[in-house]
Specification:
Largest sheet: 5 strands, mixed
Radius of gyration: 22 Å
Number of helices: 5
Oligomer: single chain
Distance between the termini: 22 Å
Shape: globular
Length: about 400
């Protein structure tokens, strides 16, 4: 674990920077061997984070006391693929490449203690890799998804309680922004709404605004290679941002935005015969000069500030524009927001066009943290995250995790 603090100067940060002190701090806890990190997850309440490795180690880090605890150590050829925290930060769940599921309780009242409370073996139950884990709000169940099937697992019984064969290509699952007992399945062309017994409640279909010409509409058909990278909600839960990778080698980035009000409807399951017909969601796009900067959307802070990794590999922020701002500044043919990651050397100011520069100024694009060159690798950047509870940026490298504090992430 590497721990550092980045201090920023500026009118908005002087008072906070002064309170933090005038020097950087660096603490290093080295691993016994270089074991590449494969997954990283931070506690929703701060202080602790977990990482899993290529050789099936799972470790818990305490950044307050600079302590490291081994949660799981099989010393096998299996890798840890997913880790998720419960909402109350008292449990974690993780899975390995052989589709073994482990749930562990974490107690920090007196001294840090960790206990494996459930082991569920899913290898014979499903085909294909596990794609995602989610904790139920009461920490008693796990929502597990693969490419073809979704399962609900009971932690107390260590068994599967519900399953659903998928007839659609869901890329990402998340909680309903106003009711976390409802899960949403996001795919490029639609969203489904389910309860925790996996009964489908609604289906919502996407369409383009009427004033976007057909030649500018992005083709996200099922026969195309498409992956949803991130699903993010604004802090007021009124809007959803979706970043999609598509095209040859998934190098094209599409940034979609739509209001959560479009997900209105019943929050309780219906009988199959009573399922509503699919509703329509009008999706819009970030302005092209803004979206073309993004390599990866990371998090949304208060006041709709999007934290993102830019194409020149800096952590930066901008304000997510409203639909009215998009309409007033860009003709319909400029709504298509495909960004290539090939232009690594592009600066945060875009291509130098005067109109584009004014748009970037209007949306408050600001560099927060330039990443060192030896941090930049596709595997590391795919795992990087913002830890808002500790106003920190986490990035793995060579078996360690860099934790960089910044007032720009407050």
């Amino acid at each position: 674990m590497r721990y550092a603090e980045r201090l920023e100067k500026g009118p908005d940060s002087d008072s906070e920077t002064d309170s933090l002190g005038q020097s950087n701090t660096l603490c290093t806890v080295s691993s016994k061997r270089v074991d590449p990190i494969t997954v990283l997850a931070a506690s929703p309440l701060g202080r602790f984070y977990c990482c899993g490795t290529e050789h099936e180690f799972v470790r818990l880090f305490d950044i307050q006391d600079s302590k490291v605890s081994d949660i799981h150590d099989s010393n096998s050829f299996l890798s840890i693929e997913h880790i998720v925290w419960s909402h109350n930060a008292q449990f974690i769940c993780f899975s390995d490449s052989s589709k073994n599921i482990f749930a562990a309780s974490i107690s920090t009242s007196n001294s840090m203690t960790v206990e494996i409370v459930a082991k569920i073996f899913m290898k014979s139950s499903t085909a294909g890799p596990i794609t995602q884990l989610l904790f139920h709000p009461d920490s008693s169940r796990i929502h597990l998804s693969t490419l073809t099937t979704v399962f609900v697992l009971s932690i107390p019984s260590g068994s599967v309680t519900h399953s659903l064969e998928l007839s659609f290509d869901v890329c990402k699952w998340g909680f309903h922004p106003h009711d976390q007992t409802i899960v949403l399945g996001f795919e490029p062309s639609s969203i489904i709404k389910c309860d925790w017994t996996l009964n489908k409640i609604n289906t919502f279909r996407f369409q383009f605004p009427d004033n976007v010409p057909e030649s500018s509409q992005i083709d996200l058909n099922r026969d195309k290679m498409v992956v949803i990278d991130r699903i993010l909600f604004t802090s007021d839960k009124n809007r959803i941002l979706s970043q999609i990778s598509t095209g040859m080698g998934l190098k094209e980035k599409v940034i979609l935005c739509f209001p959560t009000s479009c997900l209105s409807g019943p929050l309780h399951s219906r009988q199959d015969s009573e399922v509503e017909e699919a509703k329509t969601i009008i999706r819009t796009f970030l302005p092209k000069p803004l979206a073309s900067l993004l390599y990866l959307s990371i998090w949304i802070l208060g006041q709709d500030r999007l934290i993102f990794l830019s194409k020149n590999f800096s952590i930066a922020s901008c304000k997510i524009p409203s639909g009215q701002e998009e309409n007033s500044h860009f003709p319909s043919h400029r709504r298509q927001t495909i960004a290539s990651i090939s232009s690594v050397g592009t600066s945060l100011n875009g291509n130098g066009n005067t109109d584009d520069a004014s748009v970037l100024l209007q949306y408050g694009v600001k560099e927060i943290l330039p990443l060192p060159g030896d941090w930049i690798s596709p595997d590391s950047l795919a795992l990087c995250c913002v830890w808002t509870e500790e106003r920190s940026f986490l990035c793995p490298r060579n078996g360690e995790v860099a934790v960089v504090k910044s007032v720009g992430l407050a």
